[in-house]
Amino acid sequence: MREFDPDFEAAAYSGVIGRYPDFSTRYRMVVCDLPRCFHAQPREEQIVAMARPPRLTGTRWDALLAAVTEHLAWEHELEPPEWVHEPERFCVPAWLVTDWPRDEPSDVDPERFSPPAFRRHGTLIDPRSLDPRGGEKYHWTPGWLNTWNLPEWPWENPPAYPWASPARSQ
What we know:
Elements (H helix, E strand, L loop, with lengths): L13 H6 L3 H17 L3 H7 L11 H15 L19 E3 L12 H4 L2 H6 L1 E3 L45
Parallel strand pairs: 1-2
Helix pairs in contact: 2-4
């Protein structure tokens, strides 16, 4: 677990996208390192850490960064920052974000099991990336979605977080 860093903020992760051209480093930093650092912050610092909007990169990574931040806000019962609702932070059509080799099929369907923030932003991930080692508070299991008291999959219109509006098309 990371230690409390008073200078941590989600906005700094837009720099990761430009600094690291390879997919696996970007994925590891945005999906795993960002939540780890976020969880290490006291509640007051968490609110400050996600307040400033990250610089837009003009890539699909803007949507993934917004999805991770919105998911963390939900997980910590915080109001998400306004910048996560900006139309530039959504992928249309949805992006299947994978960190496994293309020639190896996954045994977990990201379209079915991605958390609502990721579905809303059009960034479908393998939820096994969201485990305690990846920065989540809870370990993912196939029944993990039921901890949210959500209806069974598949959903025609996936429920959103209480503050979320329907996905916006661009």
